[in-house]
Design brief:
It is built from 21 helices and ten strands. The N and C termini lie far apart (about 60 Å). Bound molecules: iron/sulfur cluster (SF4) (2 copies). This is Twitch domain-containing radical SAM protein.
């Protein structure tokens, strides 16, 4: 019955996502957070996890999903469905309602909630936590919510500023949910006997005190053996002591955030050093207790060369799943001249036809198709609308990092010049911002 609803997704019945600000969303792909009855954002700062879980907002979302209605927060999945791409909800529905060993329990959970005014009796069993913005990198497409290095960078933080804290008084002003022991122990750990998955991302989890505390606590409580851990890591570091503790868990999956080979990765993921990343990727590929998926964020900076990274992942016997970037819009694959997009499409289609990795890893094929579909969309207008912004952003970051777009990515640079654009070096956002504020 549920699968006849095109908008049904299992996540609002099992999953809980918390931003660094404590704002709660349906999942990491959700474009909007939950809101309370007055329209203000819902988060642990103003409501307990238990209350948010069965709040009016959550029940309304569940009701609309069952009825086949579209939900603003799930626009990304709807858009991907409309484009013939494979949306994230298809992946989660498949994983939890077909392949999971307890899939019957999750089906029952949904059915019972429908009889009970969409209230879910059990608590979440799959947590996606963003415990702050401690990170050692300031990747071009990221923002200050997820990277303290960007927040501290006067220039980059002007392009990618931090979201305001949400209103609420459950913990003192200035303190954070991931530092509040009562939130952590009483609310997130309340359902620990039934919890199945913790996914830690947002910043770099391997240097985040919350991650280390969580790992120790799960081992101490003797529940680690039944917990699946997922991390999203840039793998610029490989702390042996943390990896030793991970052996205690049911399974561990690393989504490795690498965006290209050598100079391409160093350009996008500043100040990562390829030497370290490559060494750590080889090290983790030899770790029998850990599964890995390379998850590059596909953007205009790397789409022309992304197949090199897929091949490198394959040489380490790792899967690669491409994530298509949607924000910031000036880094999207749509923000490229037509001939560059056509070349990117040709390279990806040829790869789909010829690479043995595509047959070995079906998810890879689907994710390549998604990028191709994105490249084929209404492309001329987004490109013309954003090219000036793209040049200014790129110049700003190049200057402040002593990097060079022209030297690192000459192919895309030449496409832009041939398309009739002058690569201006005159202005940057600092000057623009100063001008605007003095007007
Ligand atoms: S439908 Fe998509 S965006 Fe919405 S909760 Fe599911 S996976 Fe997330
Ligand atoms: S590693 Fe991740 S969190 Fe850190 S800056 Fe890069 S994208 Fe952002």
């Amino acid at each position: 019955m549920l699968l006849t609803s095109k908008t049904f997704c299992i996540l609002p019945w099992i999953h809980f996502f918390i931003e660094p600000s404590s704002e709660v969303k349906l999942c990491c792909f959700s474009s909007e957070g939950l809101t309370g009855e007055t329209g203000s954002p819902l988060g642990l700062k103003n409501m307990s996890l238990r209350h948010i879980w069965n709040s009016v907002a959550m029940k309304d979302i569940r009701r609309r999903m069952v009825a086949g209605e579209r939900i603003g927060a799930c626009a990304k999945c709807d858009r991907e469905s409309d484009l013939g791409q494979t949306p994230a909800r298809a992946y989660y529905n498949n994983l939890w309602l077909e392949n999971d060993r307890e899939h019957e329990e999750w089906e029952l959970r949904v059915a019972k909630s429908i009889e009970n005014n969409l209230e879910v009796t059990g608590l979440p069993v799959y947590y996606d936590l963003r415990p702050g913005n401690r990170c050692n990198l300031k990747c071009r497409m990221c923002n200050a919510d997820y990277s303290c290095r960007i927040r501290e960078d006067a220039l980059h933080s002007k392009w990618a500023h931090q979201s305001p804290d949400i209103e609420g008084s459950r913990f003192p002003e200035g303190s954070k949910w991931y530092e509040a022991d009562d939130i952590f122990l009483n609310e997130i750990m309340e359902n620990i006997q039934d919890t199945r998955v913790f996914y830690i991302s947002g910043g770099e989890p391997l240097i985040n005190p919350f991650t280390l505390k969580l790992i120790d606590l799960l081992i101490e409580l003797k529940v680690a053996r039944k917990i699946v851990l997922h991390f999203s890591s840039n793998l610029t570091i490989y702390p042996e002591d943390v990896f030793a503790k991970l052996k205690n868990f049911e399974s561990v999956l690393f989504y490795i955030s690498v965006d290209g080979m050598g100079p391409v990765n160093e350009y996008i993921r500043y100040p990562a050093k390829w030497f370290n990343v490559e060494r750590n990727m080889k090290e983790i590929s030899q770790n029998p207790g850990i599964s890995c998926i390379i998850t590059p964020t596909v953007q205009n900076y790397n789409v022309l060369s992304i197949t090199d990274l897929i091949d490198f992942a394959g040489s380490l016997n790792m899967r690669c799943n491409l994530n298509t970037l949607f924000a910031p819009h000036y880094l999207s694959v749509r923000a490229m001249p037509g001939p560059a997009r056509r070349l990117a499409i040709d390279r990806l289609l040829e790869y789909l036809e010829k690479s043995s990795l595509v047959k070995k890893f079906p998810d890879l094929a689907a994710s390549i198709h998604n990028v191709v579909m994105e490249l084929k969309q209404d492309t001329q207008k987004p490109y013309l609308d954003t090219i000036a912004e793209f040049i200014m952003f790129t110049n700003d970051l190049d200057r402040s990092r002593n990097q060079s777009f022209k030297d690192t990515l000459p192919e895309l640079y030449n496409f832009i010049i041939k398309d009739g654009h002058t690569w201006s070096t005159e202005e940057n956002i600092m000057l623009t911002t100063e001008k605007l504020s003095s007007e």
